[in-house]
């Protein structure tokens, strides 16, 4: 069985490096892109099992990225986890409406993210 593929969409190098290292340490194949347009461009090539995305990014934000992916028949089953410092009620409601599985507020404990990733991918995180 091949490793689960996680696309990380995050414009902060510090954050995406930490997320990449933590998820790779758990055996995931991690692919980093720095904005929503790159994510859409690379989606077919990477074929992620899960997308971990920031919400506030230049060019195409995480919510619009999620909507674009959910609107494509071939990608609509890809689950989303949002990591962001923007978690007002309206943002969370919109994210849930378009299919986000978890919202993790920045700053966050890396173990929280790893646990959520495992839950979404139905893997034992022990």
The number of strands is: 5
Quaternary state of the chains: single chain
Mean pLDDT: 92
How much β-strand is present in the residues?
A: 15-25%
Q: Give the helix tally.
A: 5
Which spans of ≥5 residues are poorly predicted at pLDDT below 50?
A: none
Give the biggest beta sheet: 5 strands, parallel
How are the strands of the biggest sheet laid out side by side?
A: 2-1-3-4-5
Query: What is the CATH superfamily classification?
Result: Response regulator
**Helix-strand sequence:** EHEHEHEHEH
Structural class: alpha/beta
CATH class: Alpha Beta
CATH architectural category: 3-Layer(aba) Sandwich
Overall number of structural domains: 1
The dominant shape is globular
Question: Can you walk me through this structure?
Answer:
The protein is α/β, with parallel strands linked by helices. The protein has a single domain, classed as Rossmann fold (3-Layer(aba) Sandwich). Helix content is 42%, strand content 21%. Helix 4 links the parallel strand 4 and strand 5. Helix 1 (13-25) crosses helix 5. It starts with a strand and ends in a 6-residue tail after the last helix.
What's the arrangement of secondary structure elements?
Elements: E1 5-9, H1 13-25, E2 29-33, H2 36-46, E3 50-54, H3 62-70, E4 80-84, H4 89-97, E5 100-105, H5 110-120
Parallel strand pairs: 1-2, 1-3, 3-4, 4-5
Helix pairs in contact: 1-5, 2-3
């Amino acid at each position: 069985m091949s490793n689960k593929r996680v696309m990380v969409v995050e414009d902060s190098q510090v954050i995406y490096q930490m997320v990449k290292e933590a998820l790779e340490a758990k055996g995931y194949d991690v692919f980093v892109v720095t904005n929503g347009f790159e994510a859409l461009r690379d989606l077919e090539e990477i074929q992620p099992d899960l997308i971990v995305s920031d919400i506030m990014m230049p060019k195409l934000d995480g919510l619009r990225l999620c909507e674009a992916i959910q609107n494509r028949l071939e990608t609509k089953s890809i689950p989303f986890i949002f990591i962001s410092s923007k978690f007002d009620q309206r943002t969370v409601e919109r994210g849930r409406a378009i299919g986000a599985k978890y919202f993790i507020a920045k700053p966050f404990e890396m173990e929280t993210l790893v646990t959520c990733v495992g839950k979404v991918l139905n893997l034992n995180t022990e």
